[in-house]
Design brief:
Layout (H helix, E strand, L loop, with lengths): L1 E4 L3 H6 L1 H13 L3 E4 L8 H5 L11 H6 L5 E4 L2 H11 L6 H4 L2 E3 H9 L11 E4 L3 H6 L15 H6 L6 E3 L14 H4 L1 H17 L4 E4 L2 H13 L5 E4 H5 L4
Parallel strand pairs: 1-2, 1-3, 3-4, 5-6, 5-7, 7-8
């Protein structure tokens, strides 16, 4: 299976280890990985701020690689959602859009959790990001009041020694929201502090998510409040100790 790997701009620039871990997780799962070097951004920051016209031609590198791979995988639920539901939607058919997968979605739906070999003997609190939960249907949002499922939890269940905690309000927004954190910083920080209190009450050592953007925001809150909790992208956990 040939997989195109798209490492989003902010991960490439600020958290490159997440990109490397994603690559290694895919390779360990038996995938032939083609690294996308041309795209700088999926266009989400501009589009969310009302400047979608500024993303013209951003789709071209993705359109070039899609016919050449079985799937296009990215370690970001929000970028995956934007690619499949906005940037690429006017240009490709539904079956091509279905190739775009967030990492845990790909591992759950295509590879299978039994192919994951990792060890992470720590107590980890799971933050369920908005785009992953409500955009990509990686799990059941609490407000729907329907039978619960979580693709993310099923994938992480394959990690040896992991003590995974899904605290109450795990699917409440962390407060980042892209440009929201800039224009409504006071509200954003308060939401981050609420999330920190929830995770702290669960007595976890790490907070994990599918989106490094959420974790970047929480990392700033943790540091400002001198919390001992650390953030870790799910790709880092899936590539640990194996």
């Amino acid at each position: 299976m040939t997989v195109g790997l798209f490492v989003p701009c902010y991960i490439d620039q600020l958290y490159p280890k997440v990109g490397r871990d994603t690559l290694e997780v895919l390779e360990k799962a038996g995938c032939k990985v083609v690294f996308l070097q041309d795209p700088l951004c999926c266009g989400q920051p501009m589009a969310n701020s009302g400047y979608e016209s500024k993303t013209r031609d951003f789709e071209k590198p993705f359109l070039k690689v899609l016919p050449e791979v079985d799937y296009l995988v990215t370690p970001s639920a929000s970028c995956s959602y934007h690619l499949s539901h906005h940037l690429l939607k006017p240009f490709v058919a539904a079956e091509e859009l279905a190739k775009v997968k967030e990492l845990t979605e790909f591992l759950h739906d295509i590879i299978g959790p039994d192919k994951i070999h990792a060890s992470f003997p720590y107590r980890v609190g799971l933050h369920l990001s908005c785009h992953g939960l409500r955009g990509l249907n990686l799990g059941t949002p609490s407000e729907l009041k329907v039978p619960y499922y979580s693709k993310i939890e099923k994938v992480l269940a394959a990690v040896d020694g992991l003590d995974l905690v899904v605290p109450s309000k795990a699917d409440e927004c962390c407060g980042f929201g892209g440009s929201f954190a800039v224009f409504e910083s006071a509200v954003s920080v308060k939401m981050g502090c609420d999330k920190m209190k929830t995770m702290s009450g669960a007595e976890v050592s790490y907070v994990a998510a599918t989106d490094m953007s959420c974790l970047m925001h929480l990392e700033g809150v943790f540091r400002a409040e001198e919390s001992t909790m650390k953030v870790m992208h799910i790709a880092e956990i899936l590539n640990a100790g194996a």
